[in-house]
Amino acid sequence: MKSQHIPFMFPFQCACFSFFFFFCLMFPGTRAQQAFRTEPKNLTVRMGATAVLRCEVLRASGTVQWAKDGFLLGPERSLPGFPRYSMIGNPKRGQYHLQIEDAQLEDDTQYECQVTSSESSSGIISRLAWLDVRIPPSKPYFDMDMSTPWEAGKKYTVTCVAPDAKPLAEITLYKDGVELTGAESFSTSGSKDKLLNAHAEVTYVFSCLPDSFSSPTCSISPSLSMFLVSLVFTPPVILGLERNEVKAERTLVLECVSYGGNPLATLHWTKNGEVLSMTWEEDVVAQKSSSILKLKITPADNQAELCCESSNLVSRSPLSVSRKITVLFEPAELTLSGSLTAIEGQELNLSCYTTSSNPPVDIRWWLGYKELNNTSVAMEEGDNGGMTIMSNMTHRVSREEHGMKLTCEAFNKGTHFSKTQSDELSVYYPPQKVWINAPPEDVPLRSGSTVHMVCFATGGNPKATLAWFKDGTAVTGALQQTSFDMGVARELVVVLTASDNMASYRCDATNKAKKTISAYTKLRVHFTPVSMKITAQQEVLRQGEALILECQAGSSSPMANISWILGPLRLQGVEEEPRDAEFGGISVHSSLSLNLTSQHHNQKVICQAYSHVLAEGTNMYYKLNVLYPPEFSPDQPTEVQVLEDDMAVIPLLVSANPEEVSCIWLHRREKLVKEEDYRYHWLDDHSLEIRNVSRNDAGVYAVKCENDEGANEISITLDVQYAPSVKAEKEPVFVNLGETADLICVADANPIIAGMFSWKWLGEEEVEMGEETQEDESGLLTIYNVTRAHAGSYECLANNGIEPPASAHIRLVVQFKPELRKGPQWRKVASRGDGTSTAEIVCQAEGVPRVDFSWEKSGVLMDFENPRYEEMIMREGSFHTSTVRVVNVSAVLDYAVFSCTARNSLGEDKLDIQLISTNHPDPPSSFRQVSVGHDSVTLEWIPGFNGGLQQRFRIRYCWDQSVSFLYVDVFPPSETTFTVTGLQPVTTYNFSVNALNAIGESEYADNNAVLTITTKEIIFLMFCKLGGSGLPVYLTVVLTAVLGGLLVFNLIGCFFGLRWKKSVIPPCRSSQSTAGNSNKYESREMINAAAQRTLLVDSGSEADSNVYESYAEECSHYYYPTGVYTPHLSPPPEETRGLGKTQTWLRAVRPVNTSQPKYHATFRVYI
């Protein structure tokens, strides 16, 4: 019905929208104008693809919809009636893109996006956008007579047609892969509007050979082709099928062969008209086509017709050969049905059924080794042309046949197939004897005790099923039945009750033979009262009234005595005469009077019936429901603590009866109402819950509760605790140098606890923090005798145990008068005085508050209006820098003393700076030792004035007894710390340092002072590693003697060498001496022959050494490139050293857990 109404409804609907749209355009609003952010553009897609025309509207206030050829599609995004059309995109961003799925020829037209007017804007229409749908051509074909064979030498016109394409398809004709020229192309109208048929026509002269094997090809984009050929061929033949009968599950391999034809024949196989294979091979030399079919035979192929057909392009009808096959197959299933269970003497009826088979099977029945002949057989047509067989058998069973195997056998003569189906025969017969093993009937048993009764049954098939009964009613609690050789047993475990007294128990034995045999027994039981009942004379109980309770104890054997219990109290009641009751027992009665209070509410009054014979009783209680006004518990808290922003629960421990209590909460004499503050919530027990509690909620809460019996009230204090917030009382804090600074921070917190404040210095260097104190909510940090190091930021941390702690930063500003930088580099400035250079005279001061500068030249205040002089001031923290630039320095005018004065409110400081000509540098100062090793010394100094040029440093040193000096240039040049390496252990050296620039060099540091340093000693470790399977004793002795001799020779040589050195070489003089030790050895030191006599150990010289030599009055100067080399030394073994002696140890170590023992010898030599 919907599809019939759509053509009518949508034109009407769209017409209405069109009218509404142009109506809106005529009456636009006066507010924000709608506009297109994105308008649709022309789009080209293939047929079947998805096209999206984009439309995005800014400030859309009207209705957005699309028009197709002027026909409105509707405002809904799903576009009902156009299942392939929809509007997509985010409407909140003004996106109304038109999506067309599975584009078709009918979609090839123009579209526009329209927005109707609204109260705030006039309507707008986008530019037209064309959707171009490209359609490929349908299957091409040759337009010519295909049935008439061609004759050699004649002309034929070949026309190829590519129908229904958009745009027009292009056709190319080929022969043997070569394009045919001269083809004429033209077009005609297609089957639908906008579709075109492309035609390509060529005239072709047919030759007998080789044209009979190669034909023209028509090629259209995309690649489609057709061929033309003509020759005859012979009918096919089938090979591989010698007889028509085939067994199922066998795989047939058949070959179909067709000879001749041009082109050679195409072959395909069919079975009952259904195509099985369309694959074939061609043998051009043998002029034949062949196709091999592999077919697995199934029962469904019975009487199937296999056919092979051959054809080519010029055959009017295919040629074929066919064969019909007969399939021999076995039954898929053999089913034995019917019950193999029967009662002794009954007849057994069974059936045996086989599914379809070819040929049909024969069925025989066997019971054990005996064949049963009382059978009947029915045969019917089955699946796949076979036959089904049903055999029915009848037999009367006896007890002796129980457990024998009954077999149905099926045999197929055609396939020699045999299959059987067997099952056991079950014959039922009843049990023979039943008896009960139970306590004697005259022995009394205690109620609650457990009695085990066992029922036995023997004989029967199947074994008997035992069932227990009590007074004719089945008992469900019996244990699982068990079996033994002769029969079965089932135990009944009874926990005795009053109802078991003189009850009759019966055990029935049955099986599938449907005959029952029974056995009986009885029990005598002593029991406590079977029931208890308490009644009250009043229905409503109130505080202060008297209550009378009556207790009735049910049947018991022997008789029980009644007593009353209330909490820890045992009460005495009034007894009545006993009387006979059920189960052969006796019933007793008692009454009790009780004065009620509120404490009795919900308490239980217990009535106990006790049997002295059984030493056991039965209880029953009566719960008191006493009415009383509200009462507050002694455990009711009067103060509640809670953390701010948490949920506060003020418990109300009130009891009353009736429990319908109404309570009113007052805070600061105002009634709390949930509707006025959403944070208030009352629990079922009238407790107050305050969500997101704040410090304003703290205070006393008054609670008044009442019920139908009266009223009562109580007061509760809410203590709201909260984490601290802290702020500085004063920030920043200003203090003069040497005075006392007080840093104060104030916390708002609850609770205020002792020691909740702590202070932290936020600077990098450590300072003395001062004294920390606390006065209530204020934390104080008092710093006495403030120094400049105390200036900076301090953190005040407040922590009252409630997270998070709070902190505040206080900046301490230490005020002091200016202090100028006055080192040697600050007192001189050098520049050429030829009028071509510019000099910068720098004056830097540190002070607080702000420092101002004034300059004098030769005692006269400088005038910076002069263009040759310019002052620049930079300020960074407490540092203030004034730089005077002197342009075109003149030796006559500018070589003078410039005085810089820095002042603030606390004082002033002055520095004289001399502008001089460039010269050699001043000598360094404070030359000192930093560290010393066995082959190296680290030195440090303070540079002097550089003379106005870049300066570098040079270290001079020599051995204490040497006649020559060694020089090392410091690198990098500006470094003021340097390590001299390549020294000898336990040797005294003299060191000096001076400065050099492009003009010259300075004197040596500290008025040509010499720094005397002695290097540390070194420990030599020598390891000897000997391999082998063992070291003989004589070899050990020889090795020890040789090593000892070498050591003695070495020591003698050292001793005489030192004496010769002292007697021949004059010492190098020094004016200052300091000593030190080290343990570093440089094995790569480069020494020339002239300097070897200055060293204790002659290490030789290297071919690539770089040595520079000069001569002076006192010493020869040698320049040695310095290198750092640290040899790997194993950890030394234990040592013993005596005064003035050198001791040597030889230690041999034999390793363990090795297949080849090895020896290690360790030698230690002290020099």
TrEMBL record:
<dbReference type="Pfam" id="PF07679">
    <property type="entry name" value="I-set"/>
</dbReference>
<dbReference type="GO" id="GO:0005886">
    <property type="term" value="C:plasma membrane"/>
</dbReference>
<feature type="domain" description="Ig-like">
    <location>
        <begin position="529"/>
        <end position="625"/>
    </location>
</feature>
<dbReference type="InterPro" id="IPR003599">
    <property type="entry name" value="Ig_sub"/>
</dbReference>
<keyword id="KW-1133">Transmembrane helix</keyword>
<dbReference type="InterPro" id="IPR003961">
    <property type="entry name" value="FN3_dom"/>
</dbReference>
<dbReference type="Pfam" id="PF00041">
    <property type="entry name" value="fn3"/>
</dbReference>
<feature type="domain" description="Fibronectin type-III">
    <location>
        <begin position="923"/>
        <end position="1018"/>
    </location>
</feature>
<dbReference type="InterPro" id="IPR003598">
    <property type="entry name" value="Ig_sub2"/>
</dbReference>
<protein>
    <recommendedName>
        <fullName>NPHS1 adhesion molecule, nephrin</fullName>
    </recommendedName>
</protein>
<keyword id="KW-0393">Immunoglobulin domain</keyword>
<keyword id="KW-0472">Membrane</keyword>
<dbReference type="Pfam" id="PF08205">
    <property type="entry name" value="C2-set_2"/>
</dbReference>
<keyword id="KW-0325">Glycoprotein</keyword>
<dbReference type="GO" id="GO:0098609">
    <property type="term" value="P:cell-cell adhesion"/>
</dbReference>
<feature type="domain" description="Ig-like">
    <location>
        <begin position="235"/>
        <end position="326"/>
    </location>
</feature>
<keyword id="KW-1015">Disulfide bond</keyword>
<dbReference type="InterPro" id="IPR007110">
    <property type="entry name" value="Ig-like_dom"/>
</dbReference>
<feature type="domain" description="Ig-like">
    <location>
        <begin position="331"/>
        <end position="426"/>
    </location>
</feature>
<keyword id="KW-0812">Transmembrane</keyword>
<dbReference type="InterPro" id="IPR013162">
    <property type="entry name" value="CD80_C2-set"/>
</dbReference>
<feature type="domain" description="Ig-like">
    <location>
        <begin position="431"/>
        <end position="518"/>
    </location>
</feature>
<feature type="domain" description="Ig-like">
    <location>
        <begin position="28"/>
        <end position="126"/>
    </location>
</feature>
<dbReference type="InterPro" id="IPR013783">
    <property type="entry name" value="Ig-like_fold"/>
</dbReference>
<dbReference type="GO" id="GO:0050839">
    <property type="term" value="F:cell adhesion molecule binding"/>
</dbReference>
<dbReference type="GO" id="GO:0005911">
    <property type="term" value="C:cell-cell junction"/>
</dbReference>
<keyword id="KW-0677">Repeat</keyword>
<keyword id="KW-0732">Signal</keyword>
<dbReference type="Pfam" id="PF13927">
    <property type="entry name" value="Ig_3"/>
</dbReference>
<comment type="similarity">
    <text>Belongs to the immunoglobulin superfamily.</text>
</comment>
<feature type="domain" description="Ig-like">
    <location>
        <begin position="724"/>
        <end position="813"/>
    </location>
</feature>
<dbReference type="InterPro" id="IPR036179">
    <property type="entry name" value="Ig-like_dom_sf"/>
</dbReference>
<feature type="domain" description="Ig-like">
    <location>
        <begin position="818"/>
        <end position="914"/>
    </location>
</feature>
<feature type="signal peptide">
    <location>
        <begin position="1"/>
        <end position="32"/>
    </location>
</feature>
<feature type="domain" description="Ig-like">
    <location>
        <begin position="630"/>
        <end position="719"/>
    </location>
</feature>
<dbReference type="InterPro" id="IPR051275">
    <property type="entry name" value="Cell_adhesion_signaling"/>
</dbReference>
<feature type="transmembrane region" description="Helical">
    <location>
        <begin position="1033"/>
        <end position="1058"/>
    </location>
</feature>
<dbReference type="InterPro" id="IPR036116">
    <property type="entry name" value="FN3_sf"/>
</dbReference>
<dbReference type="InterPro" id="IPR013098">
    <property type="entry name" value="Ig_I-set"/>
</dbReference>
